[in-house]
Amino acid sequence: TILFDPSPWPLTGAMGSLLLTSGLAVWFHTSSTTLMKLGLLTLMMTMIQWWRDVIRESTYQGHHTLGVQKNMRYGMILFITSEVFFFLGFFWALYHVSLVPTPELGAEWPPTGIIPLNPMEVPLLNTAVLLASGATITWSHHTMMKGNKKEATHALMITITLGIYFTALQLSEYKETPFTISDSVYGSLFFVATGFHGLHVMIGTTFLLVCMLRLVQSHFT
């Protein structure tokens, strides 16, 4: 196992995340976007330089030995576990308020006065897009392991396109919703849960874009 030099990027990434979330709160209350832009800039610079270091350590210095790769897999498993519990909190809140609606909500779910979106329209299409992207990224992975760089690149490009399409569909859905984030617990849960999910899709699409650029430059075997 190789011990790498201490990296500042986890710290700057955490600082950027704090600035971004604080900036969002300030934006909601005062319409000022300065702090939010500072957080976004910090996160962008962190990602660019962190990717630079990872590419240098793995591709050019050969530091990603089997032991290092194993530790990275364990780290990813822990990260995914934390993500599962992160979204579990949203589902817990949803079941808590929807299974036994309080009188303040009109004793019904969706609450009185809320017109929900039709789940058989854009939500169903977005689900299909996500499932399709899962199939295409698996296709890319398997063809890359077989050494078919061209087909792997094409499949990865399709996956990235589907990720962008999903984000565009969700933004259009937000514009059409007849309720807002301040319309009872229904609006709060809808926009916070789907918003965080959309944020994960955008981050994942960015990661896949970097992977595609590395694949084109033959960084993977």
TrEMBL record:
Residues passing through the membrane, by range: 9-28, 72-95, 122-140, 152-169, 189-216
The listed locations are:
Membrane
What are the Heme-copper oxidase subunit III family profile domain coordinates in residue numbering? 1-221
Task: Cite the InterPro entries for this sequence.
Answer: Cyt_c/ubiquinol_Oxase_su3 (IPR024791), Cyt_c_oxase_su3_dom (IPR033945), Cyt_c_oxidase-like_su3 (IPR000298), Cyt_c_oxidase_su3-like_sf (IPR035973), Cyt_c_oxidase_su3_a-hlx (IPR013833)
Citing just one GO molecular function, the answer is:
cytochrome-c oxidase activity
GO annotation, cellular component aspect: membrane; mitochondrion
Domain of life the protein comes from: Eukaryota
A biological process (GO) of this protein is: mitochondrial electron transport, cytochrome c to oxygen
> Which family is annotated?
Belongs to the cytochrome c oxidase subunit 3 family.
Its function, per the record, reads: Component of the cytochrome c oxidase, the last enzyme in the mitochondrial electron transport chain which drives oxidative phosphorylation. The respiratory chain contains 3 multisubunit complexes succinate dehydrogenase (complex II, CII), ubiquinol-cytochrome c oxidoreductase (cytochrome b-c1 complex, complex III, CIII) and cytochrome c oxidase (complex IV, CIV), that cooperate to transfer electrons derived from NADH and succinate to molecular oxygen, creating an electrochemical gradient over the inner membrane that drives transmembrane transport and the ATP synthase.
| Full protein name | Cytochrome c oxidase subunit 3
Organism name: Oxyuranus scutellatus scutellatus
Source organism lineage?
Answer: Eukaryota, Metazoa, Chordata, Craniata, Vertebrata
